[in-house]
Amino acid sequence: MPIQSIFPLFTTRCDSASNPPPPPLLPPPGGSKSGEAVSTPPPPPSAAESDKASAPPPPSPAAADDDIAKAAASVSSCPNPGPLEMATWDVRRLVSLDTYDGVRVDISKQLSPYFACVHSFHLGTTMLPDGKNCSYGFTTQMNDEEGFMMARVDPERGTVDGRIHKALLGGLAMGKLQLGLSSEGQSDQMLGEVDVGAATWTANFKYGSMGGGNVFGCNYFQAVSPKLAMGGEGMYIGANGNMISSYTAKYSFDNGNEEATDAAPAPGPPEAPSYLAATYNAGQGMLSFNYKRAVTAQRVNIGASLECSPMTLESQVMLGAEFNLTRSKMNICVDGSGRIQSVLETKLGREQGSPALNFAAELDHGKNVMKFGYGLNIGS
Most buried among 135, 198, 229, 264, by the most CB within 10 A? Predict the structure, then answer.
């Protein structure tokens, strides 16, 4: 018996004369109401349409240049010149050394991350007044993120010196207070200062009592160009009624020896660039020129200072050099009168806070004076 007679309602695909119809379309995710036509999904875009639907075009070069110009206009190419008092500090440090005779010992102790104390001894010296040959001083210092406070007591002389630096207005200004008190009370002094500045200038205002009279003054230092800075200072001293004014111009320049080197840099902060500075003190009628050059960055520095009076033609010249080695530093300076000063400092270890040994000597051929001394810094 044939199979069709047994199962007349079933037809296999192979026996069907035509292909089966496609399955019905599924309703949309939200369902469809009866009687509504079911919309078919849109066909996929063709390759030509995909190429047309690209990312938005980049901004025009003119718009990009305008944005760069606006950003550059908000940032000046002239750096902050720093305080006027520090304009020639590098040269003064090189041409005038802290020499002494006898033995000087400084013992410092860090009691906390913010507090330290120092015991200072000076023995066998002829530099103290009243014929004394020894002295002792006790110094404390406290530092934090907004400033520091320091006090020094000298029991032999009966004096107390203090200094407070504090950031004001969220760091926009720096307030300074300096005090000097003695047991006699005749040489007491107090000086308050406020430092303010911006991207290209700094200013300082001071007021206090010094020498039995009031003192007030101000100074201003402005960067005129990326390498030139100019400023001036005026001060009134009430004790003698003098008005002192000075004017400074400082020109910085490149050393011209920035070749690549494999030598490790010397420890400490980076050195200031080479510069030439001129200062005219109208009150004293003195004109000074200061020159500093970094022969080798953070290794060898030289400085020269020339002071002269245009009215009397009196002058004085001073030359100095500094040599920084791995664990030692050598300073030497000579002036026009024949005085020679030298200071040698060396570390006795490589660890932080290792003791330091100092040797100081001064030979003044004009006055036939010789001074020699050595010092030890422990815990520095």
Answer: 229
